[in-house]
Amino acid sequence: MKPRKKEPTEVRRQQITEAALRIIGTKGISGATTAEIASASGISEGNLYRHFKGKEEILGSVIDKIGNDLASILDAAADIAEPLRRLEEIFKRHLSYIEEHVGIPRTIFTEEVLVLNETLREKVRGNLMHYFRGISAVIEQGQEAGALNREMDPNALATMFIGTVNFTALRWVMNKFSSKLSDEGERLWETFVKSLVCKV
After folding, report:
1. pTM above the 0.85 mark?
2. Is residue 9 part of a domain?
3. Quick check: is 68 in a domain?
4. pLDDT at residue 143 is higher than 70
5. What pLDDT does 84 receive?
6. Which domain holds residue 189?
7. Which pLDDT value is given to residue 3?
8. How many whole angstroms from its chain centre is CA 53?
9. pLDDT of residue 2
10. Residue 122 falls inside a structural domain
11. Whose CA is closest to 83, among 126, 142, 128?
């Protein structure tokens, strides 16, 4: 049997993190054991512990990956000059990202992360606040340019924006992924945008 190529530490950590997110998507956090994650990564469980201290640290890496990916969504839309169009792109990319990674809501919306583990909870809060500030900044830019409704608090609108995405994702999970999340996003955006545009 051909020996598996030895990967650099950072590459291996990324592979383990991505494998953990996939397993959480199918089996939930409780089903994502270190043995399962190691197997999905193509390494032994003992080798896994050379890269992570344990499951909590792997979950922390998963949460950081989600935060980094959300930051990349903000960056990908940064070249769109029109604020409303930029927000729409972020909104739809966010929903598509969740649709492609079922493990995201199954990681974030769990008691183990949000209630029982302060370290993981703080990681979620920190990553979410970075994303929140990015959304709020786009809204403020649109208001300053006169393209978005200045009567609305930008932080309140950012909360509504993220809350709409998160509740839609949670409902999608509870409905066992019976609908296409990106299609629902089209309908939701048409409704949400009415609170953003300037009143004539």
Report:
1. yes
2. no
3. yes
4. yes
5. 92
6. 55-196
7. 43
8. 24
9. 43
10. yes
11. 142
Q: For residue 33, what is the DSSP state? A: -
Per-residue pLDDT reduced to its tens digit, 11-40: 999 999 999 999 999 999 999 999 999 999
Whole-number Cα distances in Å, 83 to 17, 137, 158, 190, 194: 33, 10, 13, 15, 14
Instruction: Measure the CA–CA gap between 136 and 48, rounded to whole angstroms.
Output: 39
DSSP notation for 124-185: HHHHHHHHHHHHHHHHHHHHHTTSB-TTS-HHHHHHHHHHHHHHHHHHHHHTTT-S-HHHHH
On the question of pLDDT at 96 being above 90, the answer is yes
Name residue 5's amino acid: K
> Mind giving me the DSSP string for 67-105?
HHHHHHHHHHTTT--SHHHHHHHHHHHHHHHHHH-THHH
Chain length of the chain: 200
pLDDT digits (tens, 9 = 90+) for 59-86: 999 999 999 999 999 999 999 999 999 9
32 touches 106 (CB < 8 A): no
What does the pLDDT read at residue 188?
87
User: Two tokens at 65?
Assistant: 């990956």
Q: Count how many domains the chain has.
A: 1
| CATH code assigned at 150 | 1.10.357.10
- Nearest by Cα to 37 from 94, 100, 107: 107
With respect to residue 192, please indicate whether it lies within any of the assigned structural domains: yes
User: Which residues contact residue 50 at a Cβ distance below 8 angstroms, ignoring those fewer than 6 apart?
Assistant: none
